């Protein structure tokens, strides 16, 4: 039985070791929202993966802080739960704000795993593989030469797939230069909704590059236009932003809009929905992979657990801590071996320890919500 005594929320300020740029803009520092749920002195940890601005979706870090404090946390206190899968139902009346809700839900899954003295990946039904295959997402660079150099560095580190951020003006010529330099690598492109169907003829040129898939080329809330586009492309379309719930995955598959699905814990509202989407895609023969949101160590550890489910057959964006942080907030930090894999941690809960000293250094707001 789960009964939450108190919920601690923290805002962290963590500079990236290198800027990360998408069609939304350039990020140099992350504001990270952590959720710690406590029962009988045992803590479960979650990370809210919203960005600093409402560009990826309607959420941002400070809005999520208010949603967690004022709406989600109070619904958990003074409640007895059979298991963590019930958490999402308590906040189901909140429209949207999946990332805020997911941060709390993931913390309760971690707590439940710790109360049961087992790894988080086992609690969610994972463990299909002992190691997680990893790719990297490379943001828009200042020059093509800078991009080629970044790709060379990541391939030398062993990463199995390269994903490039694209936007109008940074797409066809860039992809051509990459393919000429690296003709055999697994290569994908992520547009983050930067195009419309008016760009159909332009997007058809992507087929010449042999991409594994092109990710969310059209609007963040669209499925139908993606189905239209897919009928004109040989390159598979992967959907990201518009898959927020299991029904969206069903609709996308039924319409032929998604030959691949990117599952992000925050975007879909936590583990319960992520597992349902995974199962829907698996039944339909649609592969899935784990997308990233520039997570700190706790969110990264949750991604590793999720990516051990059996239909996560494509390399995801779960890469090493050092790609993003001079020092992460977990010990040991996430590392990738020379073959581009992350070993599945066998420890209790999400499998790592919270680096309390580092956590204190980067925390600038902390608050406790009590029953």
Structure in words:
The chain contains 13 helices and 15 strands. It has a seven-stranded parallel β-sheet. It has helices spanning 61-76, 87-90, 98-115, 120-123, 144-156, 172-181, 200-204, 224-230, 246-255, 265-268, 271-284, 297-306, 356-362, and strands spanning 6-22, 25-39, 42-48, 131-133, 136-138, 161-165, 186-190, 214-215, 237-239, 260-263, 288-290, 330-331, 341-343, 353-354, 363-370. The radius of gyration is 20 Å and the shape is globular. The longest helix is centred in the N-terminal third of the chain and has 18 residues, at 98-115. The chain has two domains: 6-117 and 353-370, Enolase-like, domain 1; 123-343, Alpha-Beta Barrel (TIM Barrel), CATH 3.20.20. It is an alpha/beta fold. The relative contact order is 0.17.
What is the beta-strand fraction?
15-25%
Neighbour order of strands in the largest sheet: 5-6-7-8-9-10-11
Order of helices and strands: EEEHHHHEEHEHEHEHEHEHHEHEEEHE
Give the name of the CATH architecture of the largest domain: Alpha-Beta Barrel
How many domain modules?
Answer: 2
Q: Give the rounded overall mean pLDDT.
A: 96
The major β-sheet equals: 7 strands, parallel
CATH topology of the largest domain: TIM Barrel
- With helices defined by DSSP (H or I, 4 residues minimum), what is the helix count? 13
Structure summary, number of beta strands? 15
The CATH superfamily of the largest domain is known as: Enolase-like C-terminal domain
């Amino acid at each position: 039985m789960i009964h939450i005594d108190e919920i601690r929320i923290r805002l962290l300020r963590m500079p990236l070791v290198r800027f990360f740029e998408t069609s939304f803009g350039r990020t140099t520092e992350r504001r990270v929202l952590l959720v710690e749920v406590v029962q009988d002195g045992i803590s479960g940890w979650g990370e809210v993966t919203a960005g600093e601005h409402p560009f990826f979706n309607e959420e941002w870090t400070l809005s999520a802080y208010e949603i967690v404090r004022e709406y989600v946390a109070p619904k958990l206190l003074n409640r007895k739960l059979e298991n963590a899968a019930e958490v999402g139902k308590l906040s189901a009346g909140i429209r949207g704000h999946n990332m805020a809700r997911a941060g709390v839900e993931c913390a309760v899954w971690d707590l439940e795993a710790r109360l049961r003295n087992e790894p988080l990946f086992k609690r969610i039904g994972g463990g299909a593989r002992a190691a997680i295959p990893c790719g990297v997402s490379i943001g828009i660079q200042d020059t093509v030469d800078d991009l080629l150099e970044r790709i060379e560095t990541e391939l030398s580190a062993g990463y199995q797939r390269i994903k490039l951020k694209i936007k109008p003006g940074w797409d066809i010529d860039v992809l051509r230069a990459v393919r000429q330099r690296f003709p055999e690598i697994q290569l994908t492109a992520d547009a983050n909704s930067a195009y419309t169907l008016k760009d159909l003829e332009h997007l058809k040129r992507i087929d010449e590059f042999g991409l594994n898939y092109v990710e969310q080329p059209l609007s963040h809330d669209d499925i139908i236009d993606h189905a239209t586009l897919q009928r004109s492309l040989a390159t598979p379309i992967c959907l990201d932003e518009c898959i927020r719930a299991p029904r969206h995955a069903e609709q996308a598959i039924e319409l032929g809009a998604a030959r691949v699905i990117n599952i992000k814990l925050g975007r879909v509202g936590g583990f319960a929905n992520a597992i349902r989407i995974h199962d829907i895609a698996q039944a339909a023969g649609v592969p899935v992979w784990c997308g990233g949101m520039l997570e700190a160590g706790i969110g990264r550890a949750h991604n590793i657990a999720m990516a051990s489910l059996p239909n996560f057959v494509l390399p995801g964006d779960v890469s090493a801590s050092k790609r993003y942080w001079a020092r992460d907030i977990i010990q040991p930090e996430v590392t990738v071996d020379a073959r581009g894999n992350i070993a599945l941690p066998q420890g209790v809960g999400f499998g790592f320890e919270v680096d309390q000293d580092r956590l204190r250094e980067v925390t600038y707001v902390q608050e406790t919500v009590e029953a």
